[in-house]
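The passage that follows is intended for readers who have already worked through the single-chain material. We present the inputs for a multi-component assembly, then the predicted structure in tokenized form, and finally a short commentary. You are encouraged to pause after the input and sketch how you expect the pieces to fit together before reading on.
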Amino acid sequence: MSRTRGSLLTGLLWTAPWWLGFLLWLALPLGLSLYISFCDYPLLRPPVFVGAKNYTDLAADPLFARVIANTFLYALLAIPLGTVVAVLLAILLNQPVRGQSIYRACIFVPTIVPLVAVAVVWMWLLNPEFGLVNSALALVGLPGPLWLESPRWAMLALVFVSLWLVGSPVVIYLAGLQDIPLTLYEAARIDGASPLRQFWHVTLPGLSPVILFNVIIGVIASWQVFALPYVMWRTQRGPGNSVYFYTMYLYDNAFQFLKMGYASAMAWVQFLIILALTGLVFRLSRRHVHYRGS
Amino acid sequence: MRTRTALLTHVLLVAVAAAFVLPLVWMVCVSLKPPGEVLANPPRFLPRQPEVDAYREVFRSEHFDFLLYARNTLLIAVLSLVGMLLSSAIAAYGFARMNFPGRRLLFGICLATMMIPFPVIMVPTYMIFKELGWIGTFLPLWVPAWFGSAFNIFLLRQFFRGIPIELEEAARIDGCSQWGCFWRIILPLSKPALAVVALFHTLAVWNDLVGPLIYLAHQEQFTLALGLQFLQSKSGDTPWNQLMAAATLIVLPVIVLFLLAQRTFIRGIATTGIKG
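Having made your guess, compare it with the prediction:
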């Protein structure tokens, strides 16, 4: 008995940095924001309890509906496209040819570039007049769009840039590919499976847990998109609010309009949406994800 | 047949790699152009006559103090890195080696917190820091690091559990304390994992925009990322070759770090992805 209590004390002492931090920087803020989300709190005056007003206001706020729609649209474009591109790149980078480490480094390098710098570089690359992208399109005879200034193309421009930053999932898929036992491919070959069928019946099932991991990360990340559009469309949040995302509206409510209660309500809605979406991804994937050994 | 496939693979790889690297090469090229050449239509890729005037201007600009911002960024990085490594390692050791009631529950909560994105707690943490009088100081940017991060604790715990416990048992018999085991056996053996944590943490600080944007108030406190954002927001009067020069100055250290620690990078991402 005394031994258990002693070890409980040592255990709590060793793990103290984590649980102290958890209480201070996570549990306390979460509780605080739940309370504030039921208050009118313009930061400079003390909070006043207003019940569910912030939440009912959110439900009636057209801009709130707009940022949710934008965020979903971005996720629906960027996650599937990113997954396809990353898996294809990983397969390409897994081929046994010389110089692979250099090619891998090239694909990975953009992901470590500060997002502010990414934004600055792509703003100029996508400049309709002086940018490289449209002059490359002109070379093959295609008319270049206005990209960042066009309500229709702004979102696609952002998805395009997100594909440039696909390096981390590529590295994860690469490790996943190398984890698939070669014997499976040999067996498939003996059974006369073409490379395409091998991809479909060996590679994809083998990668499916890693794909699930990356999709979940992607879902969570899509609800946090901030730095890139914040820098690329500084004031107008994109033409016709076309690249105005959830986190940006939250940030604006909190730090531009000083509506802390409203922003806190947004934060809690965001939290619940992410939880629901992650649960959904798990549910949908149960049938298609194959864990080896089970 | 086989050589033709290999050739095709090579061509594809070169094309793809070039596409990924070109934007960064273009950034450097624009930074070496005179203003007139930047606004050429159609654009030329390489500068006709490379010149460093844009860099000279950026160093003189009142909107961008590279050396000061670099000093600020490094200060925050070092202060938070020491705390992050120490606290994450200590907590990870607790989770890896202590057998106490409630450990599984606590560790489960620790893992679950990884799912909570920063924007969700952005507003209340700001209010807490405001109560503490920390807004407009570096404190919000490094003090929380001294409480570890769930992700790093998880990563280090996995690594610690891979170290044979017999080493510590032998040391305990020889009279080594638990702390001694941690400090003299576990930490020295965990250099590869600690390097991954240190690398990704430093990178995160270097690249972070949201934290400095919310918590810092004065231009003398800006970090490099925030400084570049500020310079860009003044782009009405900042020519693009200067913006690209500033961007190059911020990106270059990261690239050098990557070239020096490429293996650590790749190992870090691969392990976290697979084991996660």
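Commentary: Chain B has two domains: 2-51, 65-224+257-275. The first helix of chain B runs from residue 2 to 31. How closely did your sketch match?
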